[in-house]
Design a protein that fits this description.
Number of helices: 10
Pfam family, one: SpoIIE
Organism: Streptomyces chrestomyceticus
Radius of gyration: 52 Å
Distance between the termini: 131 Å
Protein name: SpoIIE family protein phosphatase
Structural class: alpha+beta
Largest sheet: 5 strands, antiparallel
Strand order of the largest sheet: 1-2-7-9-8
Keywords: Hydrolase
Helix content: 25-40%
Shape: rod-shaped
Number of strands: 21
């Protein structure tokens, strides 16, 4: 184990950086170790204390068996000896002594016999014994076979244990900071166990030189193979570190440049990954968008097909205009929404045995299939009662009596009309439905109002019958409230309806209901089913 005491951050960083480089640590790991040691040592040094840096080698098996505690286990493939002395022997065969930090000294025998000339950081060769602190680094270049017994030999993979100690229990990471390289931290020590590449020779903390050229701390061998060897510390380097050590600017700059290159390479890699992920995300989003478009198109196709089927079913339930001599009939129906193309606005027309034409207009409460079923029940009940000969005035009340037990929630408005094609006589019964509109061929229009209450209402039935007469060319318009309440104002809607019917009365009768509906729906504040029927009195054929 080697140790050295520091009272300033620059030499501490330099020592850790050289230690990492000499042990062939990956540049990124080395940089993380330097920054982590500096982060812990900074507050201690600012408080006026010195910090002691120790390094040792442990085998993987030794560390696992000792629980990873600092200093546990033996150094991989290393043997220790003890010697005394104050410097490095000039002939390369003596023992090097490392002065301690006031707590004693630890001597280690490092045989240098047979060590060839090592190459320094600037590419020049120099005798190993004449290089001071850096010749310790260069001597590791000698092959393990040439090293005598007792020297540090290449070993298998293990861990580099780097320990930072303080004389007082003041060691703690800065508030809110996270160490870039995790460590085992206690109040007076922190230890990093860094995995070493296979075949890395043991290297301890590199020493510096003072102004007098004497080594001031550290011992051990630096790696001489693999990365470029470290440059020797200049013999006359100024002090300036507060602990008697001197750093080598050339070596420091080279190591910093290595770390910067690795950092920039990492940035480039991350930028390339970001570009790749952005491209992949764009392609994914494009594919998802295309899928959404396809799903929306498919959904629209399904809705359209669904609506088409429902319209066909509803058209099958809605009777086409009947052919009657002396009358022209037409109808227009539009549901409240295309996704539910059926509703509660229904009609029925048929010829009675006496030759009169019966017309039923129903508006059942609600929308969709349920309201369609309710409206169909009403029209079927009315048809049955009318064909059985029940008086027109009683049909609304009788319909309520029939359907109330079957559908207690049913509510529907009903308008009943009887027309004699031969005479033009018109009879109306009403149950809460909007009044019929008559547009006279001679000019003018009028609403034919009859009081009454619809099916499902309290006291259902028409209060009376209204009798009127259609002259040749007169137009009768029957409708549901979806036509006149499109602006939420029934009176204003009735006025607009009269104006539209007067404007279109001379058109072919099959076009009139649709034209009126188009006029009435120029402004729609709420959607509702729309039903419009047109009946025009015409000359009878002879």
């Amino acid at each position: 184990m080697s140790r050295h005491t520091f009272h300033a951050l620059p030499p501490l960083r330099h020592a850790v950086r050289r230690l990492g480089a000499a042990n062939a640590l990956p540049v990124e790991t080395r940089a993380r170790l330097v920054l982590s040691v500096s982060a812990l040592a900074d507050t201690v040094i600012q408080a006026g204390y010195g910090v002691t840096l120790e390094s040792s080698r442990t085998c993987a098996t030794d560390r696992s068996s000792s629980g990873g505690s600092p200093g546990a286990g033996s150094r991989c493939g290393a043997s220790r000896g003890r010697a005394s002395g104050d410097g490095a022997s000039g002939d390369g065969h003596g023992a090097r002594n490392r002065a301690g930090d006031g707590a004693g000294a630890e001597d280690e025998t490092e045989a240098a016999a047979g060590v060839p000339r090592a190459r320094s950081g600037d590419g020049e060769t120099a005798p190993a014994a004449a290089q001071g602190a850096s010749d310790v680094a260069e001597s590791a270049a000698a092959p393990a076979a040439n090293a005598p017994a007792g020297s540090t030999a290449a070993a298998g993979s293990g861990f580099l244990a780097v320990t930072l100690r303080t004389p007082a229990p003041v060691l703690a990471p800065p508030a809110g900071a996270t160490l870039l390289l995790p460590a085992e931290v206690s109040p007076d020590a922190a230890t990093w166990h860094v995995p070493l590449p296979a075949g890395t020779p043991e290297v301890r903390i590199p020493s510096g030189r003072g102004p007098d050229g004497a080594t001031t701390g550290g011992s051990g061998r630096l790696r001489g193979s693999g990365p470029a060897p470290l440059a020797p510390l200049p013999a006359s380097a100024p002090d300036g570190n507060g602990d008697g050590t001197a750093t080598d600017p050339a070596t420091e700059n080279r190591l910093l440049e290595e770390e910067l290159r690795v950092a920039l390479a990492r940035v480039d890699t991350l930028a390339a990954d970001q570009r790749r992920l952005t491209h992949e995300l764009a392609e994914t989003n494009s594919g998802v968008l295309a899928l959404y478009v396809q799903l929306e198109e498919r959904d629209e196709q399904l809705r359209s097909a669904h609506g088409h089927i429902l319209r066909e079913l509803e058209d099958a339930l809605r009777p086409p205009p009947i052919a009657v001599d002396g009358l022209e009939l037409a109808v227009h129906y539009a549901p409240a929404g295309t996704d539910a193309p059926t509703g509660g606005d229904f009609y029925d027309w048929f010829t009675l045995p006496d030759g009169t034409v019966h017309i039923t207009v129903v508006d059942a409460l609600g929308h969709g299939v349920r309201s369609t079923r309710s409206a169909l029940n009403v029209t079927h009940a009315v048809r049955t009662l009318a064909l059985e000969g029940h008086p027109l005035k009683s049909i609304v009340a009788r319909t309520d009596e029939i359907l109330a037990p079957l559908d207690p929630e049913l509510m529907a408005t009903v308008l009943l009309a009887r027309i004699d094609p031969a005479s033009g006589d018109l009879v109306l019964a009403n149950g809460s439905h909007p009044p019929a509109l008559v547009v006279r061929a001679a000019g003018g229009e009028e609403y034919l109002e009859v009081r009454g209450r619809g099916v499902g209402y309290p006291f259902p039935g028409s209060e009376r019958l209204l009798h009127a007469k259609l002259d040749e060319g007169d137009l009768l318009v029957l409708y549901t409230d979806g036509l006149t309440e499109s602006r939420r104002d029934p009176r204003e809607g009735e006025q607009r309806l009269a104006e539209s019917a007067r404007r279109h009365r001379d058109r072919p009768v099959r076009e009139i209901p649709g034209a009126i509906a188009e006029d009435m729906h120029t402004v729609i504040l709420h959607s509702d089913d729309t039903l419009a029927l047109a009946v025009r009195q015409t000359p009878r054929s002879r």
